[in-house]
Amino acid sequence: MVKSELPSTFRAFRFQQHRWSCGPANLFRKMVMEIIRNKKVRFWKKVYVIYSFFFVRKVIAHWVTFCFYCVVLPLTILVPEVKVPIWGSVYIPSIITVLNSVGTPRSIHLLFYWILFENVMSLHRTKATLIGLFEAGRANEWVVTAKLGSGQSAKRNTKGLKKFPRIFKLPDRLNTLELGFAAFLFVCGCYDYVHGKNNYFIYLFLQTMSFFISGLGWIGTYVPS
């Protein structure tokens, strides 16, 4: 393991995650038939590369997270005929999350916040994989991840921030996609609070807050444009 620097702004982090999700999906689209037709690669290696490395890790993983936690689970509240068993909605995801966190015990106290934030980012990763698979408008976009740096470079980059007033224009930071999902989850949470029986509203309100905070851009460092 080596030390690395995270993007300082939420906007830069979104661009980074878009690139990391869109790129592999687009590469999968372009290379899958060539991998299948390649006679020098053994069958099981083809299966591993196509199914495990590309399809499951780079495509399906994002879709499952977003669709289940941000779409299916909230919609089961509005459509009571559809029921998700408690082992599928709580127990199995919790076990998988705990097992994934074993390697970083010092950050175990951030696990709950990480889950909520990962659900927010799954929205962008799912969108990016679709753009990559269908080679839509931003499939070939390359935006270098902006980082403020540390030490003297950070001081140089933040000198100009004093010129800006504390009150900034909200459109500079608003992320309408997150705010839209925050409104959707809030409505589902209110409905479950009034009519529900599984107490999903606790999770939905917490997830609403994470989408709302992300939608307002209250994450990372703010650099006025």
From TrEMBL:
Q: Where in the cell is it found?
A: Golgi apparatus membrane
State which residue ranges cross the membrane.
47-79, 91-117, 200-223
Record-level Gene Ontology MF annotations: mannan synthase activity
Q: Which domain of life is it from?
A: Eukaryota
Question: Could you state one GO cellular component term attached to this entry?
Answer: Golgi membrane
Q: Which UniProt keywords apply?
A: Glycosyltransferase, Golgi apparatus, Membrane, Transferase, Transmembrane, Transmembrane helix
Q: What is this protein called?
A: Glycosyltransferase 2-like domain-containing protein
Record organism: Brassica oleracea var. oleracea
